[in-house]
Amino acid sequence: MRASSSSIASFFAQNACEVAQHVRINDETGTAEGRALFNQENVPTETLFYSVVHAFRERTPKGQNRTAEMAYFVGCVSSMFPMTYPIPQAFTNVLGRAGVRFTVLGPEEWCCGFPQMMGGQLEQAKPLIQHNVERMRALGIPRVVATCPSCYHMWKHVYPEMVEGALGFEVVHAVEVLNDLVASGRLQLASPQPGSIVTYHDPCDLGRKGDIYEAPRRVLEAIPDCEFIEMVQNREHALCCGGGGDMETFDPNILAEVSARRIAQAAEIGANYLISACPQCVRTLQKAAKTGRLRIKVMDITQFVEMATQ
């Protein structure tokens, strides 16, 4: 049964108040805008990530779901910003094509708490952390996966220190899942665009904080008929996209300057595709490419892999 637009809006409304704080922490209009957007009754379902929030939730039995291989924590950016809706859609499509059984928290997913922590308000994030961990434990799944590096960082490094006892499940990022699926043969890749030059932007929270550098590169190098070339600054020396650490809130001018420098590095090597593994990096660098009128397609690695499996 197709969910109503009001029920979809209700899902986003549960997160809107918390999300508004980290979208624009110091902007009082942020909360008002968030409520106006996510509480409206006539929200078009095709723009609100229907496939994960409802289609997959409706296939998940109530209570524990011990048949799922993993639970996907979608994150606020991919749930709230239309520019990044294709990322969770692509990831879930890829999981489906690989035959991976997974579930989501649906309306029980709350903000991971990263923006509050970065704003010096970790105490305010504790109820969010406790709620998310309790709900994941109740699912009885062995693995939690995130497409957002900030969510991954919270679950992997902060949550264990904020809750009693062990989490009870493994925490991984989507690039690790994709790498495992390719290495095991569960995911067969073809060239989405033969002859393309592809480069990779390391997200700060995934690279410098998470030390995950090789997994995304193995995936990209496994795609045939595409040439993978590194930008001049890569891995631990990679430039920030400009949108991390709540920078978008506090100084948009710095964001624009840093993202312009990064997209220019992709242009220098003649890249057709700039791939990252972070919704915020994708948002920021897409804007930079558009502002600079560069013919570079910026997308998440889940989107590129989805293209390579069609």
What can be said about the biggest beta sheet? Answer: 4 strands, parallel
Strand order of the largest sheet: 2-1-3-4
Strand content is 5-15%
Shape: globular
Give the strand tally. Answer: 8
At the fold tier of CATH, the topology name of the largest domain is: Rossmann fold
* Cα end-to-end separation: 27 Å
Give the low-confidence spans: 1-64
Report mean pLDDT, rounded to a whole number.
Answer: 82
Estimated helix fraction: 40-55%
Structural class: alpha/beta
Give the H and E element order.
HHHEHHEHHEHEHEHEHHEHEH
Query: If classified by CATH, what would the architecture of the largest domain be?
Result: 3-Layer(aba) Sandwich
CATH class of the largest domain: Alpha Beta
What is the total domain count?
Answer: 2
Q: Please, how many helices?
A: 14
Output the radius of gyration. Answer: 19 Å
Could you characterize what this model shows?
- With 310 residues, this protein is of the alpha/beta class.
- It has two domains: 5-179, Rossmann fold, CATH 3.40.50; 189-308, Rossmann fold, CATH 3.40.50.1860.
- The chain is built from 14 helices and eight strands.
- The strands form two sheets. Strands 2-1-3-4 form a four-stranded parallel β-sheet. It has a four-stranded parallel β-sheet with strand order 6-5-7-8, sandwiched between helices.
- β3 (143-146), α8 (149-162) and β4 form a beta-alpha-beta unit.
- The protein starts with a helix and ends with a helix.
List keywords for this structure.
four-stranded parallel sheet, Rossmann fold, 14 helices, 310 residues, single chain, alpha/beta, disordered N terminus
